[in-house]
Amino acid sequence: MHYTQMGKLGIQSSSFGLGCMRFNGAASGDSVIDEQKAISLIRRAIDGGVTYLDTAYVYLDKTSETVVGKALRDGYREKVTIATKMPMEYVHNREEMEALLESELKKLQTDHIDFYLMHGINREKWEYFKSIGAPEFFNDMKQAGKIRYKCFSFHGPYEEFEYILNDWDWDLVQIQYNFMDIDYQAGKKGLELAGSKGIPVVIMEGLLGGRLARAPGNVQALYDAFPVKRSPVEWAFRWLCNHPAVSVVLSGCNEAEQIDENLRIFDTVAPGVMDASELELMDKVREAYLSRTKIGCTGCRYCMPCPNGVDIPGVFSVWNSVSLYDTDPKGNWDLRQIREKDHGADRCIQCGACEAACPQHLSIIDSLQSAWQELHAQ
Ligand SMILES: NC(=O)c1ccc[n+]([C@@H]2O[C@H](COP(=O)([O-])OP(=O)(O)OC[C@H]3O[C@@H](n4cnc5c(N)ncnc54)[C@H](OP(=O)(O)O)[C@@H]3O)[C@@H](O)[C@H]2O)c1
Predict the structure, then answer these.
(1) Per the structure, how many domains does the chain have?
(2) Does the C-beta of 299 come closer than 6 Å to ligand 1?
(3) Which domain holds residue 115?
């Protein structure tokens, strides 16, 4: 396992951080978590050297923190740092922030949270958090030893990231970043701004929710032509860790094989290990993807549940996958499931609830219509 210095904090972390948002097929609509499997995956990662776990109050229908807490019994808590988050929607004043933090500590079965994040903020949400006294609360909790570091995760444009980063003395930030998103959201500029201030950066969506793990034909051809053979996942993580400002790369794994593969990969990563030919390869890979992707949905499910029953990430996932892999939608099992369960885009009543919730700010309503038409074109 490669370990990094976390900027100005003066502590170390494994480069591989386990994301606890996608256990047990939550991305496909199944919210029932297989506890024993999730616990064994978490412990497998820790036994392999992972020291950073990322969860949140809302993940997996609010069950993620509970499962993490159970996994960290029997001496595992002492081996890791925990990152969890305060969601804006659940707090309106000091009392509610206190109650929420206490409930998180209880679920996580711990007396302190290492990295406490304001969850998924942009400028508007940051202003809201300030208006209810969240910065003072975070300072007080830090002093009381209930949280060690005050942090935020971010979804929004770069300008808002810069504003928020410069507006308070943050200890750590979490941003979406991968070789496709260099100019998207905080992007490379945001990563480097945080790095220049010594603020450690944790990466989410490093594989774009798994999409970068499955190379379409034109991308695989580029990988195959390169003299050194690596899996798409290895290329993606290697590219991220090559940047010296990246402290931790989160990956949400669903299977033991994925944990093992990622543990192997994170043995080989380090800042500056990629040579010019490798970096050039990744530029070409980016172009090859861009020529095929239909919509930048990462399957984070912030848009769900749709009030009228549309499986929004499911429809977009099929749309992208059919385009990326050049497959016939008629034979697509996921699309059949969506139709059989009556979760298709034809149910959309254009209420816009999804667009307000989407951290990628996608034009969901129009895209759903286009996707449905294209998927049923013949
Ligand atoms: N704060 C926020 O706003 C926010 C938003 C999003 C995410 N997050 C956090 O960031 C974490 C990471 O994000 P993410 O889950 O989107 O990460 P990701 O690494 O982009 O995607 C995870 C998916 O990649 C696939 N994968 C991982 N390792 C693989 C391997 N070795 N081989 C093949 N496929 C592999 C799996 O997909 P399959 O399941 O398809 O196999 C897995 O579910 C989350 O778990 C969560 O903790 C935070």
Answers:
(1) 2
(2) no
(3) 3-290
